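Quick start: what a row looks like.
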Amino acid sequence: MRNLPTHLFCLVLLTLCTYIHADEPRLVYEAEYSGDYKAFSVNVTKRLYALGNDRFLLQNTANNFFGRINEKETFTWRPSEGIRPLEYRYKQKIFGQKRIRTIQYDWQKMQALSTHKDKTNTLKLSAGTLGPMTYQLQLQLDMLNKLETFHYHFISRGKLKEYHFSPVGTQTLTLDGYFIPNALYIKRQNEGNSRETQVWLDKDKHYAIAMIKQLKEKKTENALRLKSDQYFGDLRDTPFHLMHKKKKPKLGQNTSS
């Protein structure tokens, strides 16, 4: 067999390297949380990856001595279209018991297949329908864009859900030793009488979620508290494109000269 000419060999090598590089996930954002999940302490890591071709991956990992939860959602994002979820997968193993939930989005047919507790439902999609993870990202982006209404339609646990949030006011927080002077406190409005969701967003950290509390009959059932977070690289081609010129230091970092 003849050897490839040098210029053809270099072209093949360049194409292969470009293909490999394009498929390599790039970390965009990472946040570390401590929390409580049904009376047990838990550590949570949230990450956003850029996958190329306008595709992104949100990934949450929660773990403690008793088990582990992995949650992933892939989506596309374009400035003209916003967020469009593609696939969601939730895997939980606690005390040896496994639980899996999945969502497959088909935007051509405008429907989604949602599997929860071994039952698969076909749900109709409408423009702007989000996923269990992307609606939280959309909330942060809407705050960055200074919108006045915060209404979200998304799929979770085999059902279409609708959440409404309203800002209450700015408060100060101290979380694991870090002082947050400008935490925007918001509440979910359309909840039952026995449940309440409270969210604090750090206005000085591009409205990153600083703390979430889920209460049942006025008692905290689940909670997450931000420990640290960081943005990586060029943000211009990501959902955080509005802030690529004004990235802030990591939580707790001293900015005084």
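That is the whole record. The first strand starts at residue 26 and ends at 37. Residues 145 and 242 are 8 Å apart (CA to CA).
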